[in-house]
TrEMBL record:
Residues 18-135 form the NERD domain. Coiled coil: none annotated. PANTHER family: NERD DOMAIN-CONTAINING PROTEIN, SI:ZFOS-911D5.4. This is NERD domain-containing protein. It comes from the Eukaryota. It comes from Brassica napus (Rape).
Length: 307
């Protein structure tokens, strides 16, 4: 039991790092903790609405597909008769209403199931489950949520009921389902690995921000050099320093790789490079935000572009 609790706490802390302040952290760490694969920021096509369903996090092992929704809510939350959550207070001292988060995640899971089935992978009912995680320590409520909703307070205090939830989540998420055949498991990971996702920028502090890449800003000479980087052709941009002896770089090396549509991999083998001023910026629209952000290339490790 205590081993399960410790593992669950570690997973929760990683999830909190991923989604607290709408930024993400090291996906590889989470994958090592639960022994599977983590897919962050998916945008799954919904055939019924001709739109895309945003999925915060999908955890995959041989026995389970866990669809996790994250609500970074701060304030006092009450639940209305129709299941909506009303959050009062928080940073801006306002009142906001949210559709039932658990119902939303179940809808996302249903869309994901349909998408996988269309691409040749059918999941058993026991192989897919849903959770809502609330990583914000300023979340408060008097409401008794179902076990699929994991609040910050439950994880922090480890009350007896929380231990059952922790144990149940670990067992349910990572070991309860009937194991898939290797071929089905490999195909599932390939489908999710090639599914539509948000663009992402990776900062030097290991944070990842999801959203939409808009353009480069800077001196005309640099923006002209970067005009060849288009999402239809390029899938990843890496930034490297060119200075020596610890001096602040005035120019940066930009390496970009072309997509290879002929193979199952999303990245081609051809890589090109150029140098631009370190003051050049990436203009980026974070998801779920009305404000556009500008990141200096000198603060970034990479930019990934969805097809």
């Amino acid at each position: 039991m205590w081993v399960e609790i410790i593992c669950a706490l570690a997973i929760y802390k990683i999830v909190r790092l991923f989604f607290y302040n709408d930024e993400f952290s090291d996906v590889e760490t989470l994958e090592k903790l639960h022994g599977g694969k983590a897919y962050v920021g998916l945008r799954i096509p919904d055939a019924d609405t001709s739109s895309r369903q945003d999925v915060d996090l999908v955890l995959v092992t041989k026995g389970q597909v866990e669809v996790v929704g994250v609500k970074n809510l701060s304030g006092i939350v009450t639940v209305t008769s129709d299941g909506s959550w009303v959050c009062e207070g928080g940073k801006h001292h306002s009142t906001q209403t949210y559709p039932d988060p658990l119902a939303e995640v179940k809808k996302q899971a249903s869309v994901l199931e349909s998408y996988l089935e269309q691409r040749g992978v059918t999941l058993l009912e026991e192989n897919i489950s849903c959770k809502v995680v609330i990583p914000n320590p300023n979340f408060r409520t008097m409401h008794a949520f179902p076990s699929e909703v994991i609040t910050y307070e439950e994880w922090q205090h480890l009350k007896p009921v929380s231990r059952n939830i922790l144990s149940g989540w670990v067992k349910g998420a990572f070991s309860s389902g009937k194991e898939m055949h290797d071929s089905s498991h490999q195909k599932l990971n390939f489908i999710l690995g090639s599914a539509p996702v948000w663009d992402r920028v990776e900062l030097k502090n290991s944070k990842i921000v999801l959203g939409e890449f808009l353009e480069f800003k800077g001196k005309e000479e640099d923006t002209l050099a970067l005009r060849h980087i288009k999402r239809s052709k390029v899938d990843r941009i890496s930034i490297q320093q060119t200075s020596m002896l610890g001096f602040a770089p005035t120019r940066l090396q930009v390496l970009y790789s072309y997509r290879d549509y002929r193979s199952e991999g999303s990245s081609g083998s051809e890589t090109k490079e150029m140098t631009v001023r370190s003051s050049t910026e990436v203009v980026f629209q974070p998801r779920d935000s009305g404000k556009i952000k500008k990141f200096k290339l000198s603060s970034l490790l990479s930019v990934s572009l969805s097809a």
